[in-house]
């Protein structure tokens, strides 16, 4: 039987080449596997980054919507058909209103809004991990018109979260606060009683026409020269009931004589146009411009003035002659009002105003009118009632603070703490 040798006749070099080829193939496959894994991990990472960016954008849009809602809420003057004040205290309970968690229209993204104290450091303000209320110190009573708006926004899955904030200020309700109790372009002829008091400087009445009468029991008071000039924060003391001196006051003018505290028949004042006088105090060309640009309340009809009882920290225009007999008290020393009567004021009743009263027409009052702050009249001052004006510089200067129309403060927007 013939036998055939089937043993490979390969050389050792051929075997080595095959091993190298095999090793190279394994290395290539290993590198390819590593590359595939790396690309997969990079792709997953990019997807995660892209997802986070989308969530952040969605949360940012929700927070922006919340910020816009907060600013619109501050500036609105009507809710459910009822007139409400500007600011964060629509129900007027001296506490910042709470805004419910809301959903951005057309999405599942949620936002939360709070009116925070502008004095609080932003590092202490925070948004919860899940949609909920903003954590901050609520705006106190003195900042309800000018809080810091803080809005938190969340993406639809709740994983993205952004906090934005915006400072709020007001357009000054007056550009130059009054510096004396009564200013009248026309004559002053009160048949009843006018008691005009100034504890802080020596001027009580400035009129373009003559001062012919301040009433049988009318009088003016200035600070007793023995009393040092007080700080504006000191409330004015109550003057004597008769034209006599006291520890705090001296009486300079009554029905029989006019003292140096009165400047009347002054052509500098009488020659001013009505528009020029209005512009001096309010920095606006006329009442219409003031209503459009500054006033914090919608124009008030003359017959509705009595419904303002208790209103504080507002500036408004009465659109016509006040003839009604009304009893009301508006403003306070810390939260005064600016009341512009675009017409005559001839109504009766007992009225107390803390703030500045500006009348574009004439005054002919009955009843008792008490004003803490100051009054400016473009026409004449008359009446058979009692007109008591007590100049208070703190009230006057506060009319330029936190009373006018609310608006965002440029440069105060923040998306960081």
List how many beta strands DSSP finds: 23
What percentage of amino acids are in beta strands?
25-35%
Instruction: Return the average pLDDT rounded to an integer.
Output: 90
Helical percentage: 10-25%
Written as H for each helix and E for each strand, in order along the chain, the element string is HEEEEEEEEEEEEEEHHHEEEEEEEEHE
Domain count: the total is: 2
Q: So what's the overall shape? A: elongated
Question: Total helix count?
Answer: 5
First-residue to last-residue Cα separation: 99 Å
Oligomer: single chain
The secondary-structure class comes to alpha/beta
Largest sheet: 12 strands, mixed
Outline of this structure?
Helices cover 22% and strands 26% of the residues. The protein is α/β, with parallel strands linked by helices. It is elongated.
């Amino acid at each position: 039987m013939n036998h055939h040798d089937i043993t490979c006749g390969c050389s050792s070099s051929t075997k080595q080449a095959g091993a190298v080829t095999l090793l190279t193939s394994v290395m290539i496959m290993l590198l390819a596997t590593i590359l595939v894994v790396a690309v997969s991990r990079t792709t997953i990472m990019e997807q995660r980054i892209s997802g986070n960016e989308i969530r952040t954008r969605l949360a940012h849009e929700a927070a922006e919507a919340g910020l816009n809602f907060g600013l619109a809420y501050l500036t609105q003057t009507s809710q459910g058909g009822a007139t409400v004040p500007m600011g964060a205290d629509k129900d007027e309970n001296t506490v910042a209103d709470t805004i419910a968690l809301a959903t951005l229209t057309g999405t599942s993204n949620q936002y939360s809004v709070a009116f925070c104290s502008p004095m609080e450091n932003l590092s202490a303000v925070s948004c919860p991990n899940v949609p909920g209320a903003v954590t901050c110190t609520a705006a106190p009573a003195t900042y309800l018109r000018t809080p810091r708006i803080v809005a938190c926004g969340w993406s639809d899955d709740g994983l993205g979260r952004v906090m934005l904030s915006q400072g709020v200020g007001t357009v000054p309700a007056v550009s130059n606060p009054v510096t004396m109790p009564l200013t009248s372009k026309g004559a002053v002829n009160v048949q009843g009683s006018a008691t005009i008091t100034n504890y802080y400087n020596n001027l009580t009445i400035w009129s373009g026409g003559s001062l012919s009468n301040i009433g049988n029991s009318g009088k003016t008071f200035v600070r007793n020269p023995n009393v040092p000039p007080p700080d504006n924060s000191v409330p004015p003391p109550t003057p004597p009931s008769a034209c006599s001196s006291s520890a705090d006051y001296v009486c300079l003018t009554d029905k029989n004589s006019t003292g140096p505290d009165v400047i009347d028949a002054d052509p500098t004042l009488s020659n001013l146009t009505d528009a020029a006088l209005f512009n001096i105090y309010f920095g606006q060309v006329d009442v219409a411009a003031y209503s459009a640009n500054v006033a914090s309340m919608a124009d008030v009809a003359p017959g509705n003035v009595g419904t303002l009882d208790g209103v504080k920290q507002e500036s408004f225009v009465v659109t016509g002659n006040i003839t009604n007999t009304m009893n009301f008290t508006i403003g306070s020393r810390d939260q005064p009002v600016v009341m512009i009567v675009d017409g005559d004021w001839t109504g009766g009743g007992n009225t107390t105003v803390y703030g500045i009263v500006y009348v574009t027409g004439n005054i002919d009052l009955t009843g008792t009118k008490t004003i803490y702050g100051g009054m400016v009249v473009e026409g004449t001052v008359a009446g058979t009632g009692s007109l008591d004006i007590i100049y208070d510089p703190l009230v006057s200067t506060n009319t330029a603070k936190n009373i006018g129309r609310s608006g965002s403060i440029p440069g105060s927007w923040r998306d960081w703490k």
